[in-house]
Amino acid sequence: MSEAVSYPTDIATVRPVIEARVRSLLADGAVTGLYAVSAAIDWYQDTTEQSLSRDMQRELMKHLVSVAEAQNDTPAQAGPDARPRAHYQPEFTRRVMRLGAKIAPEIMELLDLRALAGLQYAAQRGAIRDAVMSVSKSQRFDLNGVESAELVDYVVDDMLGLGPLERLLADDSISEIMVNGPEQVYVERHGQLELADISFRDDDHVLTIATRIVGAVGRRVDETTPLVDARLMDGSRINVTIPPLAIDGPTMTIRKFPKDDLKLSDLIDRGSLSGPMADFLRIAAQLRLNLLVSGGTGSGKTTLLNAISREIPANERIVTLEDAAELRLQQPHVVRLETRPPNIEGTGQVPMRALFRNALRMRPDRIIIGEVRSEEAFDLLQAMNTGHDGSMSTLHANTPREALTRMENLIAMSGIVLPTVFVRQQLRDAIHLIVQISRMRDGVRRVTSISEIVGGEESVISLQELFRFVPEPTQGRETLRGQFVSSGLTPGFIDRAIEHGLDGKLRQIVSV
């Protein structure tokens, strides 16, 4: 009588066997991507007649998907400016989605929803998982271990969470989520757009999830309020647009709130600026220079402003004003204020300008505005010129010169008629530095210029560029290369640096 063959079940031994099977399946071309990993796991369990735990299956999936990606040459359908993920498997996603929709009515009958609502999340998840497995067994679904786990996650997320968005929100490498429709969901990952490997059932499903998201923060989206901007509990920002304004169906855009506060040193590591530029901005914060961070949409203005503001001395009182609170200052003496939109009756609005006037009564040493968008630009200049040195803000503009022009236009929106010469004099006196940041074609956000306002005559404002990014010829390379260079010019605020004993360090920085 032959002895029974003993097969190992520890992941270190199992993984090479399954990886070899994955490579074989991919080489044969029978299956691709995620399906190859799933099929290899099933093959191992069938061959060995041993069942791998769900946790082990998930761990194997996590490690082996990269193998499938490396050998998968079939691109997914995507827009012209997006790079699809190699392991995008629409058939797999749709199958799980169809099964989830099919078993939903039976799950509702099996569960006591009132009792379920009174349970802790772990108990709720367990009850839903048991119901899903029971229905799957009764309907004899032909599911492998991975598909069973995915189906449970799908139903739990749909009932308790944010549906297909849950996995995207949990992915720290994703900074933005854009839902254009049920089957067109894009993400921004490391500065590049990608087609996500998730989908919704239909437009109603998108609307249901959008309603759930904004409802959790006391907002509503319907025909009377088809546009909603809101800040989620974790600080992320969401924009929802529904018909009739959104012609092709409900849309969502979520800008995720980063879990980690980035410092200037972190931005150096990311290639956003050089060491001397970071040292220069540290000195600018210590010298209480007024500065604007200028850039396009999604260029990283708020991230840079947050990093610079970390260099403000801890003994100063700071008041921050934002439409959606994103700044996370680490100093102990900080007051954060946020605007409020009108309610459904159209009353109760608290705009930025009202917040600004209130902030002036709070004895701030510095005022930081998340973004200047309207008539509050005039109030900011007044504050900068009346003892609130070191104030900072961001605004949308593509160059430092355009930033000044935009400030002029925003001041004109205040309704106060002022001569152009006077407005430009205010700008010259109030703003010391303009820091320009851009998201470049390789997805990296770089500080492309640090410019100083050095005066001018009558209606002319003169700019002096102290640092800039000089790109190298690309020659077809995907990654953009270049150098951050200093102009070698001495800043006009050298006298202020002398007063603080920082002139030697400042001269050394700009001469690098």
TrEMBL record:
GO terms for molecular function: ATP hydrolysis activity. It comes from the Bacteria. Residues 161-435 form the Bacterial type II secretion system protein E domain. PANTHER family: TWITCHING MOTILITY PROTEIN PILT, TYPE II_IV SECRETION SYSTEM ATPASE. Belongs to the GSP E family. This is Type II/IV secretion system family protein. It comes from Celeribacter baekdonensis B30.
